[in-house]
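Figure 6 in text form: structure in, sequence out.
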């Protein structure tokens, strides 16, 4: 089916829902029926014209590793306008969740109930997950390496630009506003509060770093010989630095774009994290106000 849908022409499909019912077994079990035998076709579908205008996708395939197929480096880039993504019941690894946030720049709501994500994680793991989730790309290590090479060369010329002695690589923050996860039944209310506090702390640390980087960029912009760069968006070509065997970057010349990319953020403005899962109230866990579940209920007009 995915391969057939991928061949369909451009259409206005703002929401798409594909749900395979979950049998009474863990998501890691191999006894789930294989409705989708060739999962690679999902990456073809995600990059197809049919989904190029889709804003909300609910794709639930129990126990299957599908998140990695939705941020693969395909052209055109997958799900270019997606803001809401529900991969509940599938298997999602931490690295795949972070890659989704990097590869889907408009993704605001991510629902990952019963995906095994952070299931046995402790406080430091939750903090680290939030930290790397907020900073989709920070470029700090790359910037240091590039500037060390420029200093050794006494400056360098890039195609179309005068000789530069230093570069600043602007960080890119994820657009995430809600995150919905499930926690094991043995995690009580006190433990849930501890994990949520760890998430908020990790997010705040990332915001603090983001603010330091953009403030440094603002101070440096007026200096001669300092080139402002940013990471290319999915599907965008980054040419600067390639001649020095570094990942390609995009030059930021436009004043309005620079102002937008270097806006200082509020460290307390953390995404709404809901741990209620699909059956939260039945298990005594209340949904967080404004969580991704409630947004999904409005989109699909159901509470599943």
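Output sequence:
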């Amino acid at each position: 089916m995915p391969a057939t849908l991928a061949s369909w022409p451009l259409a206005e499909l703002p929401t798409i829902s594909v749900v395979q019912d979950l049998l009474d077994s863990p998501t890691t079990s191999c006894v789930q029926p294989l409705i989708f035998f060739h999962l690679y076709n999902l990456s073809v579908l995600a990059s197809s014209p049919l989904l190029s205008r889709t804003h909300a996708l609910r794709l639930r395939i129990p126990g299957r590793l599908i998140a990695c197929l939705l941020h693969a480096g395909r052209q055109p880039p997958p799900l270019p306008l997606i803001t809401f993504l529900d991969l509940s019941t599938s298997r999602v690894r931490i690295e795949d969740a972070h890659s989704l946030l990097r590869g889907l720049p408009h993704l605001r709501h991510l629902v990952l109930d019963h995906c095994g994500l952070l299931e046995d994680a402790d406080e430091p793991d939750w903090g680290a997950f939030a930290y790397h989730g907020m900073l989709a790309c920070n470029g700090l290590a790359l910037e240091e390496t590039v500037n060390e090479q420029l200093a050794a060369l006494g400056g360098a010329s890039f195609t179309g630009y005068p000789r530069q002695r230093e570069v600043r690589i602007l960080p890119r923050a994820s657009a995430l506003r809600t995150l919905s996860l499930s926690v094991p039944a043995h995690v009580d209310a006190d433990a849930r509060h501890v994990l949520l506090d760890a998430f908020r702390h990790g997010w705040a640390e990332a915001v603090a770093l983001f603010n330091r980087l953009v403030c440094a960029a603002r101070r440096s912009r007026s200096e001669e010989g300092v080139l402002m760069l940013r990471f290319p968006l999915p599907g965008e070509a980054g040419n600067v630095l390639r001649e020095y065997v570094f990942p390609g970057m995009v030059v930021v010349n436009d004043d309005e774009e620079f102002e937008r990319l270097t806006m200082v953020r509020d460290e307390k403005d953390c995404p709404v994290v809901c741990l209620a899962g699909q059956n939260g109230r039945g298990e005594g866990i209340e949904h967080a106000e404004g969580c991704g579940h409630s947004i999904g209920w409005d989109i699909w007009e159901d509470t599943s």
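Caption detail: The chain has a mean pLDDT of 87.
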